[in-house]
Amino acid sequence: MVARPLSTKQVTMESINQRVVKAEYAVRGELVIKAGEMDEALARGEKLPFDNIIYCNIGNPHSVGQVPLTFHRQVLALCMHPEMMQNEQIVANFPSDAVERAKTILAGTGGHGLGAYSHSKGVAHVRNTVAKFIEERDGGRKADPEEIFLTNGASDGVGRLMDLLISSTTDGIMIPIPQYPLYSSGLTLRGGAAVPYYLNESEGWGLSTEGLRESISAARADGIDVKMLVVINPGNPTGQLLSYDNMAGIVKFCAEENLVLCADEVYQENIYIDDRKWSSFRQVMLETETPIELFSFHSTSKGYFGECGLRGGYFEANNIDTDVLDQLYKVASMSLCSNLPGQIMVDLMVSPPKLSDPSGPLFQKEKEEQLASLRRRGEKLSAALNTLTGVTSNPSEAAMYAFPQVALSPKAVAAAEAAGKQADTFYALALLDATGICVVPGSGFGQVDGTWHFRTTFLPPEDQIDAVIDRMRGFHEDFMAKYA
């Protein structure tokens, strides 16, 4: 029997939740969709002006050739298939500390392995490992495993925090401009108010407390109940590293304005300058004796390991009422638990082998080589961008991005308007068409009106970065001449 076609449909663009329609997520938006179509065309043998797509739109290191860390994948392999540890010939091919770590992690699951749900906050053993990491990182100040929640990447935890705080259209969260669109899109989905504060491009994307005060005052005057401040440090998309004094000022601001601080700290390992070190907001809060309500986020997706596909992360809650933590636990229980391979990767991220361990020398070599390579690529790309006509780019002090400003001519802006595009989107689409390089327009992150930017990673392999720069330079100079 052939089913009759539906006379009407319930699920249409008009009937679905319009917040979903309005939400935008630029790093997986129009440019990436078009790049994917081009990729498929190349695979079919179609001819384009280039022979491959270079995805510089998202911090996804393994997708552009980064090799997984040996120790991490050895332990994960053993945990995924523990029967291998019963075979002496197989075990002989693994370092002893990898075998012992796998046994310890599996024992921490209560003997159930990776095929069973864990505690909704995450495996207790892993949360204890995270707590120890936080204590050592922050100068020995004790962390409570019961205040740590393991999540499917940091994004999952940020979403839960927004769910906790946003209950009406007048509930607001302060977000940086430029910002990672997780925050703007998350607010749109939940119907909350984005309260922007602007980073200062001329001062290395610095953050001023004066600017924060102006932003919160304007929002409150408009009837917005501002509940939280988001700070991304190291920065995304801007790649800056906040100073300790700047962070202390931010903590003080949150205390004075009674704001929760959301500390997005997923790039804390990716530091490329020698004269300053990264500090956590938790450490600054404790050392300045300025107690605030603080949620801190970390992820296996970033750092030198770049394990995006395994979706591991955690958040730690500081100075949060016990009753509220119980509500977070309830919400976590609704999805039962985060994925177990991701939880294992969190354990390995925060507790890698020591140099004295059998796997230590190789791990240290892989880590140092990866971070040194990222630094070289970032420096090379930033230097090259600053040689292009009308382009200025602050140094990439940290993370894995550059966010250059492009001085587009009135003729280019007019051409973009005629095409129904933002000027930076018009530029980025032209770059993709000519070179196969996929970047993200600055408008997807927010920017000062009248300025145009794009975000690019510096993740392509080091032996390819010169070719990427050459492609970009040839296109850019042609584009600027065309629209002069």
Task: Characterize the structure shown.
- The protein is α/β, with parallel strands linked by helices and 484 residues long.
- The chain folds into two domains: 167 residues, Aspartate Aminotransferase, domain 1, CATH 3.90.1150.10; 234 residues, Aspartate Aminotransferase, domain 2.
- Helices cover 43% and strands 12% of the residues.
- It is built from 17 helices and 14 strands.
- The chain has a seven-stranded mixed beta sheet with strand order 2-8-7-6-5-3-4, with helices on both faces. It has a three-stranded antiparallel beta sheet with strand order 10-14-13.
- Helix 10 links the parallel strand 5 and strand 6.
- Helix 3 crosses helix 5, helix 3 packs antiparallel against helix 13 and helix 7 runs parallel beside helix 8.
- The protein is globular, with a radius of gyration of 24 Å.
- It starts with 17 loop residues before the first helix and ends with a helix.
**What is the structural class?**
alpha/beta
Helix content range of the residues, please?
40-55%
Radius of gyration, taken over Cα atoms and rounded to an integer in Å = 24 Å
Low-confidence stretches: none
Major sheet: order of its strands?
2-8-7-6-5-3-4
Number of helices: 17
CATH class of the largest domain: Alpha Beta
Count of extended strands: 14
CATH architecture of the largest domain: 3-Layer(aba) Sandwich
Shape: globular
The CATH homologous superfamily of the largest domain is named Type I PLP-dependent aspartate aminotransferase-like (Major domain)
